[in-house]
Design goal:
With about 425 residues, this protein is of the alpha/beta class. Helix content is about 45%, strand content about 15%. A five-stranded mixed β-sheet has the order 1-10-9-7-8, sandwiched between helices. Strand 4, helix 7 (about 140-160) and strand 5 form a beta-alpha-beta unit. The protein is globular. It starts with a strand and ends in a 10-residue tail after the last helix. The relative contact order is 0.16. The structure holds 5-phosphoarabinonic acid.
Length: about 425
């Protein structure tokens, strides 16, 4: 399947320079496949689509069915890679977000905001709910704080049976969460030690919340397998994952410092959030890296579009458009044509959106913004799995091309150390 069209970069990045990265990009891919690159101890996600444990998948479905029987709401507690993949999938696969759901997933523990946490707390008081606490380390403060608060609410509502409503997804045999889960008797799912948070969407981290919403999690894995087959085997010039990684790096080497993911579908909003973490934590280190951001188009063409067209020339853009929406609409023709849009009535809304994308590519290219164009056939579980695997593999390759370790995130500790010192945590006085 062809995802990527890169003709919109060729005015700035020559075909020859793209071709010249073949050896480097292929070597980077081999480092991932052979586990010989930096951070290789966290590359378990590379082969994971084929290493999924079938019994564990069955247990995910069984547990999600039990949770569905006992709860209207699944409260997912986690931060960063422990929730963004599930949130991206839920919003992409929710054909009509305005429709009231009989089963809801709510995310907390990704902020210290008292207002947000209080509002969820109040909302849950008269709902039947269960908790999926997700933390690989089992010690991250935001989810730990939220877990205390909402576990207390479970105890108030369900007494000694509260533990039957908690599922812990964490590293087995270590960490505070694992110990607590064993002591208090929660259902436990494991996060493989060799898969870091932002690469964990295809594991139980991402899959249990999706199974709760009855999403076909096997189709997600089949999509990821198809992407694995395609991008680990195709030659460079036919390999969109390698080309995407190479072109990002060539743009960066040519002075572009910001990548904007231009999303032509509001349901892709949380994919943008997931992508920000994936590329931001993987590449933003050693004073290097394209800054990952996302815009929703055409919405943001009426706000940030001016800057992209005419402001500082910082950008590489990567557009994502969905070929076949779940639903499409025609515009009614009016006899008087007061608003002058009768000329649009021969197009469906999706066809207009597609032409808006084509017009934007032409405009931004003329404004010296190289544009990559990704077309996703449909927003289905299969293509979600395909797309996230494509992005994770590109990100790993791109990080190696950049010369960084894409699998650590030491920079995340700086704010934590200061915050702990300011909150009087013993041992952190030196950060005051
Ligand atoms: O990518 C990562 O590893 C991190 O961003 C984590 O996802 C995030 O910090 C949450 O960590 P944990 O799952 O250990 O609570």
């Amino acid at each position: 399947m062809k995802l990527l069209n890169y003709t919109g970069v060729l005015d700035f990045i020559s075909k020859e320079s793209i071709e010249s990265l073949e050896a480097e990009a292929t070597e980077a891919l081999h480092k991932l496949l052979n586990k010989t690159g930096e951070g290789s101890e966290f590359t378990g996600w590379v082969d994971y689509p084929y290493n999924v444990d079938n019994d564990e998948m069955k247990r995910v479905i069984q547990v999600s069915e039990r949770l569905r029987e006992q709860s209207e709401v699944l409260l997912v507690i986690g931060v960063g890679g422990s929730y963004l993949g599930a949130q991206a999938a839920l919003s992409i696969l929710d054909v009509n977000p305005l429709k009231k759901k009989d089963k809801e997933v709510i995310f907390v523990g990704n902020t210290f905001s008292s207002d947000y946490t209080y509002n969820v707390y109040e909302y849950l008081k008269d709902k039947d709910f269960s908790i999926n606490i997700i933390s690989k380390s089992g010690t991250t403060t935001e989810p730990a704080v939220a877990f205390r608060i909402f576990k207390n609410l479970l105890k108030e509502k369900y007494g000694s049976k509260y533990n039957e409503r908690i599922v812990a997804t964490t590293t087995l045999n270590k960490g505070a969460l694992y110990e607590l889960a064993v002591t208090e008797g929660y259902e436990i799912f494991s996060i493989p030690e060799d898969i870091g948070g932002r690469y964990s969407v295809l594991t139980t981290v991402g899959l249990l919340p999706l199974a709760f919403r009855n999403i076909d999690i096997r189709a997600i894995i089949f999509g990821a397998r198809a992407a694995y087959d395609n991008y680990t085997k195709s030659a460079y010039l036919e390999n969109d994952a390698l080309l995407y990684a190479a072109i990002r790096n060539l743009a960066y080497r040519a002075g572009k410092t910001v990548e904007i993911l231009g999303l032509f579908e509001p349901r892709l909003h949380y994919l943008g959030e997931w992508y920000k973490q994936l590329f931001g934590e993987s590449e933003g280190k050693d004073r290097k890296g394209l800054y990952p951001s996302f815009h929703t188009y055409t919405t943001d063409l009426h706000s940030l579009g001016q800057y992209v067209q005419d402001g500082e020339r910082l950008f590489l853009e990567t557009f994502i458009h969905v070929e076949k929406p779940a639903n499409d609409m025609m515009i009614p023709r009016e006899v008087d044509d007061f608003d002058g849009i009768n000329y649009l009535t021969k197009f469906s809304l999706n066809e207009i959106n597609k032409r808006a994308k084509m017009g934007t590519i032409k405009a931004h290219v003329s404004g010296e913004v190289p544009v990559l164009d990704i077309t996703l056939p449909e927003m289905t579980p299969y293509y979600f799995g395909y797309l996230v695997y494509f992005m994770m593999l590109s990100c790993g390759v791109s990080g190696y091309l950049l010369g960084v370790n894409p699998f650590n995130q030491d920079g995340v500790e700086a704010y934590k150390n200061n915050m702990f010192a300011m909150l009087g945590r013993p041992g952190y006085e030196k950060y005051l």
